[in-house]
Every structure is written in C-alpha cells, then in structure tokens.
Amino acid sequence: MRLILRQSFPLGRFHATPWRVNPFDDPFGEWPPSPWRLVRAVVARWYQWSRESAESPDLSQLDALARALCESSYSFYLPAHAMRGSPLRQYHPVEFGWVPPAKKDKPIPRMKAYGTSLVQDNYWSVPTGDDGTIWWFLDGDAWTPQLIEVLDRCIERLIYFGRAETFTTVRRDASSALRPNCEPRDRPCSQASVRVLCPQRDASRADVERITDDPQSAGRTIPPGAKLMYADVPPRVPVREQSAIFVPRTDCHLIQLAVGWSVAPEPRAIVRLTARYRSAVIRELLDIKTEGQYHSWRTAPKSVRSAIADMLGKDANGVPFKQHSHTEFLSWWHDGAPTRLLVWRGSRPFGADEQRAVLRAAVRELSWAAMGPDADAWKIRLIPLDAAVPAPPGFDGTSATTWESLTPYVPPRHHLRGGKPREAESFTVQIRRELTLRGVPGGEQVEVGEPIAATWVAVHVPLRKAAGPTLGDRRGYWLRLTFPQPIVGPLRLGNSSSFGLGLFKPVT
Fold first, then answer.
1. Long-range pairs, 60-65, Cβ under 8 A, ≥24
2. Architecture in CATH of 2-83+123-231
3. Do 395 and 254 contact (CB within 8 A), yes or no?
4. What digits encode the pLDDT tens for the residues 114-167?
5. Where are the chain's structural domains?
6. What is the value of pTM for the model shown?
C-alpha cells in the first residue's frame, strides 16, 4: 500500500542538522528530510495524542505504528526551487555563573550572568505555497485502515520539523499526479549523492525513541535502528531574472525614486548624493546614445554632447545654460531623513532614452559619505516609483503664499564680511533678486523671516571653477518666505539649487 504525505513550510525554511553532526563541519544541512526524523516525529506526536485522549494509552497500537513506519520504503518529490540558505550564526545563552571565568592569582572584576555559546544554523530555503510542497511516498504492507487513522491523528499535531523554528504542516493526500524525483538507495549513484538516514526494517520502538545522550547512541554517527542510504537531489531549476518591459511615460516632467538606507544620510550630504546619482545618469545616457562607445562627456563627440545637453545643463562646448531649463536632481526630506530623490525638468518632458538612463542608474547603490576610506561604508538604494505615486507638495501644482525650507538654503553670495552683515547682500536682497530673475510673481516683494536653523552643508563647485575637488562646504539656513500672492512651485533657490539644496515646500 502506498501512503502519500504532503509537507509544507509556512516560513519558507527547513532548519535541520544530520544526526550527531557538528553544524560548523556540515554547512549544507539536511536535505532531503531524513525518513528517520519523520518516524521519530510521528512517534513523539502519538504520545501527545494519547495524553489528549480520555482513554488509557494502548502501547501495542504504538508498537504497530512504529513497525509500519520502519518497514515502509521512502521516496520523495522535492520542490525544484529549493536552495541552500546562507548559514546563520547566533549566540545562545548557556549556564549561569561568573563572567569572565576566574584566573589563578589574577583578581579581575566579574559579574554573574549567562554565558553564551556560538551556534551555526544551517537551513534550506523552500518556496511557500504549492511550489514548495514536499511529497512523501511511503510504500509498505503493514498499513491497515486503523493504523492510517492513527497516523493522521499524529501528523496533524506536527507543528515543527527539525529545529524548533521550522514550522511545518503535514497532511495525508489520497492521491497525487506527481511521481518521486528522489529515492534513497543503498549505494551512492554519483559524486553528488547525499547521505540520508532511514529506519531499518527490524528497528524497535525503543530504537526510535532513543535520544542522542543514550549510552547506546553515544559516539555513534548512525543511531541504533537506523541505516545510512544515499539520494540524488534533483538539480535546481536555474533562476533567470525576467526583464521588465520598459514603457516610456508621456509628458513626464518628474521621476521619483524612493530612498532606502540602513543609516540615514545627513543633511550635509545632500549634494554628494544627488551629484553622484547625476553622474551615474549621465554615464548611462551616454552609453545608451552611443551604444556603449562612450561613458565620459569629455571624450564624447560634440553631436553626442548636444544630445544630452538638457540633462547635463551645458552645451557641447561646456558653456552652462543661463536659464534653469536643464534637469535638476532634488532630494525630498521627511522627519529629518531623505525619503525620495526627484529628477525634475520643467522646460520639456523627459525622452525615452532619458527615462531609461534614470532607471538604469538607480540599479546601483550610491554612497553619501565624503571621499576617503569610508566612502563605500554608507550607501543608499534607489527604488523607482511609478506614475501612480502622487507628486510631493510643490510639484503637484499646489499654490501657497508661505513656503518653508525643506533643505538648507545656501546664499549664492556671502552675506557676511568680517562677521558683520552686508546690507547689499542680505538674505532678502539675494532671494528677491533670484526670484525676479526666475520670473516668480511677487518675487520683488517677498518677505524673508529670520533663519530658523543653520548647518554646514556640502555645495557643488563646477570643475571650471575648481581644479581640485568639486564639493565645498558652506553655511546653510532654514528660512520661511511669505509672498504677497499665492505662487505655484516647485521653488528652489540659492547655491546648488539644482542639486537638492534650497528646496522649499508650501505651507498650507
């Protein structure tokens, strides 16, 4: 008679170590699951079922169940996408005592606490759902309808299998269209064969219930009542990334990317972040335009430079645009941390090649640290957001009379000389001048409040003005602007306003 069991792991992991194997010596873990483990688990759950029953336990019934399990032969259908996971190492508490241990003739300060022991957890990743189901095929002549009923009551009480964190469900299935793809044999069939622990046909219930500390089991790699067999695990189906079909958006002036990080970037690093991402976008755009021939603006021909002028902000000869008609790379902040990176251009929509370059540049991690040994220590990941995500305030057509700094405002000119304010270059004068040049209504009458806060930030220094590094430090301020009439954003002012500084949000 053939019995079919289906086993699944809701958490997608199977944690198990072969019998008396040091996890540090066997990083592969147990796969496929050992039939010997299944036999012991079913017998253990019989005791739970008997405790729940009002009748006295019938040990003859348990003997018959153990004998039927041991006399059966086992085969599997293993999920094709199961794969070995990276080993986990954790410190577990052990005995309570003095920490650190005492040393002879060396009094040292100590305290009483639990000691720790390093444990390595080897596991297999198994897909959840039907794709991760393990099918057990048990073939034996000792099964009767009464024993099958007992088996059902035992396996329905199985909540973990292997290590206690391996949650599992096991149920009996009447039939299955699947055929076994893994069958234990007495001898290895190939170099890839793995060892599997199976019960002997003459194993007793005492052998099944024996623990590792039992005197008859001590020092043995194969417990009494078990035998070592070999199985060939079916090759894993190769995983190939399915490329998403790129569909350029029409009338696209804003591309948003969510910012993910382990350590939040500092406000001082706004320009570092946007400048490095802008450089990555330019490299990708050159690669697309020239089919991989050029990756640097300096070496690219003038025809290619002209094609990417709107993204870069300067013409083929390197002359910067007078008007703010080029692409700007801005950073949106919330509760003191960046949540989005915005690629904005109001003069004309982004083309298909430009949109593709922005998305391709977001694949790689970006560092927001200053140049040096820690430049690669602090990184962020960018996740493109689709058009269904609404634009942030100021980019959605919202009008307001009051605007507050979202990122520090750095005045284009020094407003101090010798530590004293320059009336001709005060915040109000510089902001009104810039608003007038940008054609913002009411810019010449804007009221500038006192700085709310100040900090040092990195600013962008073009290569034509600095032979060395392209980033410098300036003092940035958080301001509040009040216009005589509502204006529509986006509003960004001051030094490095195209790189994320001086961005204002409407106050509604």
1. 61/150, 62/205, 63/205, 64/142, 64/147, 65/147, 65/150, 65/151, 65/154
2. 2-Layer Sandwich (3.30)
3. yes
4. 888 888 888 899 988 888 899 999 999 999 999 999 999 999 999 999 888 899
5. 2-83+123-231, 88-121, 250-392, 393-508
6. 0.57
